[in-house]
Amino acid sequence: AAMVGVMEIDANSFVETFVASKTPRPTPADFQSEIERLNVIMESVPILSFDEELFGLVSIDTTAAKHDLFAKAKTLRDALLNQLVSDLKKQTVSVHDRYREIQRKLNIKPTDEFQLQELKDFVESSKVEVESLKAEVEQIHSSYSMLDDYHFLAPDEEVCDAWRCMEWPVTLVEDYESAEDTIELDKNRMLDALTKEKEGFEALMESLEKQALEFRQYGGNENVQKYYDEATTLSDQIRNAKEQGELFNKRDEMLGFP
């Protein structure tokens, strides 16, 4: 029955139907299972029957039917193998792209404490992603090796590109070391800059406190507009100072202060 079903399959839409039957996409295991099923049918055809079968007084030549069944199973099997190779090529390109993106982000030079923290967080999170990519590359190579079981050759350049994926973890060692050096050097540089800014901020706060005390001594109805203008200016300065103080606290936090 399985063999009859093979003859009824539309070869033109077979791969599309197979891909659509899996959500979101067929896994390598899905491909291997269906490819193996079709391969078993191919291998069974030669022993399925004699080239001539006797039915009563009638001798039936099965050679053409066996040839058609073998050819159809092989066509379907090879179509899946071609689709798998195409998917592996796209997956390999995607792996290279994701590794390059990790490398790019590791080499970003922070311009402030917040970007420095982002780099520090990325160094840690990307190590998990690298492990995931390494496992994905192993799966790609396993799928390419599976092709040998069916004497099916993928293009050399695509296989070589998959091998190049295995070089990335070693390549990234230098990028990780550079990123960690950047984090340490920039942290010290930013600490020095923040200390100087705080000194200036403390001087500003003393000046604002002095102005506030002087403002409280104002009295009388004369120069009301002057008092109003000075009060507005002082209020704006105090609000800005408060915002600057909150920003200092956040920057302290980014640099590891309690």
Describe the structure.
Helix 4 runs antiparallel to helix 5, helix 5 packs antiparallel against helix 7 and helix 7 runs antiparallel to helix 8. This protein has eight helices and two strands. The model has no long low-confidence stretch (mean pLDDT 81). A two-stranded antiparallel sheet has the order 1-2. The N and C termini lie far apart (73 Å). With 258 residues, the protein is mainly alpha-helical. Strand 1 and strand 2 form a beta hairpin.
Number of strands: 2
Cα separation of the termini? 73 Å
Strand content: under 5%
Cα-atom radius of gyration: 36 Å
Order of helices and strands: HHHEEHHHHH
Walk across the major sheet and give the strand order.
1-2
Main pleated-sheet profile? 2 strands, antiparallel
Number of helices: 8
Roughly what percent helix? over 70%
Helix vs. strand class: mainly alpha
Mass-distribution shape:
rod-shaped
- Average pLDDT confidence is 81
Contiguous low-pLDDT stretches (5 residues minimum) are none
Describe the structure using short key phrases.
258 residues, mainly alpha, two-stranded antiparallel sheet, 8 helices, 79% helix, rod-shaped
